[in-house]
Amino acid sequence: MCAVSPYFAVAYFAVAYFAVAYFAVAYFAAVGDRDRAFGILSELGRRRESCLRDLAVDPTMDALRGDPRFHDALRAVALD
Fold first, then answer.
1. To the nearest 10°, the Cα dihedral for 7, 40, 70, 79?
2. What is the C-alpha end-to-end distance of the chain, expressed in Å?
């Protein structure tokens, strides 16, 4: 039996559903994969998805707050 990587599973669903993509950002941030988290976040921001409305105050995004890309993401969706 072949085990599915958590990275693959989350990335697959992130592509399919934007709400899940937001949780994928939190997941990748929690496991320390900031590049992947910001990649998904960037795409959500580009599309101005409504799931980003709580980005500025969501505690699940705390792991990303110290990174300059986080503030860029807030500016991209006019939340700063």
1. -140
2. 47
